[in-house]
Amino acid sequence: VQLQASGGGLAQPGASLRLSCTAYGFSLESYAIGWFRQAPGKGREAVSCITSNEETTYYSDSMKGRFTISRDNAKNTVYLQMNSLKPEDTAVYYCNAVYFGADYWGQGTLVTVSS
User: Fold this and answer.
1) Is the model's pLDDT at 82 over the cut of 90?
2) Dihedral of the CA atoms 56, 108, 79, 81 (nearest 10)?
3) Which of 104, 74, 83 is nearest to 19 (CA)?
4) Nearest by Cα to 22 from 111, 86, 107, 115
5) How far apart are CA 89 and CA 113, in angstroms?
6) Residue 7, Cβ neighbours under 10 Å: how many?
7) Cα(80)–Cα(72) distance, integer angstroms
8) Nearest 5°: CA angle at 54, between 110 and 93?
9) Which helix (H) or strand (E) holds 111?
10) Angle made by CA atoms 111, 6, 1, in degrees to the nearest 5
11) How far apart, in whole angstroms, are the C-alpha atoms of residue 65 and residue 74?
12) 90-105 pLDDT per residue, tens
C-alpha cells in the first residue's frame, strides 16, 4: 500500500506544473484526497482537497484561482494543476488520502519556483 506524489521540479515564476498523487495497492475511489505543502522553515499547510464524489473541493485562499484539484479514478490518481506559480509556492508538496480510519501520506515532491 503506497501513495506516491510526483511532478515537482523547478519552475519559473508564472509557469505551471501539474502534480500527481497515485495510489498503489488500494483504490482511491472512496478516499477524500488532500494536498499539503511545507516550505523551508515553516509548518505544513493545507493547499487543496477533494471529496471522493468530487462534489466538494477546497482551496486555501492563496491558491484560489491558480490551483485546480481533480481526480481520475480510472487511473487511481489525483492531480493538482498549479498555474501562475510564485516563489512563495516553493515547498515540498504532499498528498494525503483519508477514508474513515485509513490515512495515507505520500512521500512528497519538491516544487521550486525561481527565476
Assistant:
1) yes
2) 100
3) 83
4) 107
5) 7
6) 16
7) 12
8) 10
9) strand 109-113
10) 135
11) 26
12) 999 999 999 998 899 9
Q: What residues does 20 pair with on adjacent strands?
A: 6, 79
Taking Cα atoms as reference points, which of 67, 65, 75, 59 lies closest to residue 23?
75
Q: Tell me which residue has cell 498555474.
A: 83
Place of cell 516544487: 111
Residue range 35-76, pLDDT digits in tens: 999 999 999 999 999 998 878 889 999 899 999 999 998 999
- Which three three-digit cell numbers place residue 63? 491558491
Per the CB < 8 A criterion, the answer to whether 47 and 57 are in contact is no
Q: In terms of Cα–Cα distance, which of 54, 16, 17 is closest to 33?
A: 54
DSSP for 70-82 reads: EEEGGGTEEEEEE
CA distance 70 to 18: 11
Quickly tell me which residue has 522553515 as its cell: 41
